[in-house]
Design goal:
Layout lengths: L3 H12 L4 H7 L16 H14 L5 H8 L7 H7 L4 H10 L8 E7 L3 E8 L5 H22 L7 E5 L7 H4 L5 E4 L8 E6 H4 L8 H22 L1 H11 L7 H7 L4 H10 L4 H19 L4 H7 L5 H12 L3 H12 L1
Helix pairs in contact: 1-4, 4-7, 5-6, 5-10, 10-11, 11-14, 15-16
């Protein structure tokens, strides 16, 4: 996990009169480990640090306050890319694409249709209940603060649905206007931020094409490094899941990693994966989500997933699920009632 956010956490603890360095030592984290360039902390170290915090800090709003401390600049080059995006919609797509550079512990999916834009945060790796709750609170509070900055505080009322229960410091959430928080509102661990679609279409005041392209190029380099360190299959899955207007081919993904097709295949095979299997699984997952949302026609869903027409999509979906897209959508609608 990027250590830069833990440096902010230590600053917050010190400001409250807590010896953050002693806590780091008890969690087997060297103080220099969180301050250096490209510094990282393991999930195990983070969970050990939370145990130390719980034993000393009696207030339960540390995650909330940390979320308020995280700025766009805290995300380094990705934050720069977000600031210089042409529209909020573009910035949110960019954030979803490179969210692993913020944290590998959660994945971010972004969807926009005619009426609303939705950010969905879900855990991407096993976490202790306390770590999951802490990180999720940090994520939603910081997301709110950064949306305000990107839109110059011109946000209309919008909704944030979270899976955790209402905390003792719920009054502090009411200060995060114009967000309306809904606690225990998700069946699975995670959170959803729902905005009016016209908000996402707004132009951003610091749009700069050259600066944004430079930032994206650097994010690609960092993502390639992350992929090579963390596994190509996981990276390919993420890139397929976050793609818009079709699905990238293996050749396109290989080029992003500066690999030949043969080398890319070898990496996947070494991890027990095949691109066609991963692509089929992710495409089907996305198809199910789009059909359940019910915002697009079956033909529109087909085109978004890269099919040439609705008939090809219907045949492929039938092979995967045993149901036609229309029947799947009908049953999904019945389950929601």
């Amino acid at each position: 996990m990027p250590a830069r956010y833990f440096a902010l956490l230590c600053d917050l603890l010190n400001a409250r009169g807590v010896d953050a360095e002693a806590m780091l030592g008890a969690a087997h984290i060297w103080p220099t480990q969180i301050r250096g360039p490209d510094a990282t902390v393991t999930v195990q170290q983070f969970e050990a640090l939370l145990v130390q915090i719980r034993s000393v800090v009696k207030r339960g709003d540390i995650a909330f306050e940390l979320g308020r401390q995280i700025k766009l600049s805290s995300h380094e080059i990705l934050g720069y890319g977000l600031l210089t995006s042409p529209t909020l919609d573009y910035a949110l797509q960019l954030c979803a694409r490179y969210y692993r550079l913020i944290t590998p512990t959660f994945k971010l999916q972004y969807r926009r249709d005619r009426d609303k834009s939705e950010l969905c945060f879900q855990p991407a790796m096993p976490l202790s209940p306390e770590a999951l709750r802490f990180l999720l609170e940090v994520i939603v509070v910081s997301a709110h603060e950064q949306l305000k900055v990107l839109t110059q505080a011109q946000l209309p009322a919008y909704d944030i649905h979270v899976s955790y229960d209402e905390p003792a410091h719920a009054r502090a959430y009411r200060e995060l206007v114009p967000a309306r928080f809904h606690f225990s509102a998700e069946a699975l661990p995670g959170a959803r931020i729902v905005l009016d679609s016209d908000v996402a279409a707004r132009e951003l005041p610091m749009a700069d094409r050259a600066a944004r392209e430079m930032a994206e190029s650097r994010c690609e380099e960092l993502l390639r490094k992350t992929a090579q360190e963390g596994g190509v299959t996981e990276w390919v899955t993420m890139m397929l899941r976050e793609a818009h207007d079709g699905m990238p081919t293996l050749a396109e993904l290989a080029r992003l990693l500066n690999l030949s097709l043969r080398t890319m295949d070898r990496h996947l095979a070494r991890e027990g994966s095949r691109f066609l299997e991963v692509s089929r699984r992710v495409r089907h997952e996305r198809a199910c989500a789009l059909l359940e949302a019910g915002e697009q026609s079956i033909t529109q869903v087909a085109y978004q997933l890269g099919y040439k027409d609705g008939a090809n999509f219907t045949r492929a979906f039938l092979r995967e699920s045993g149901l036609s897209p229309s029947e799947y959508r009908r049953r999904a609608g019945l389950r929601r009632r």
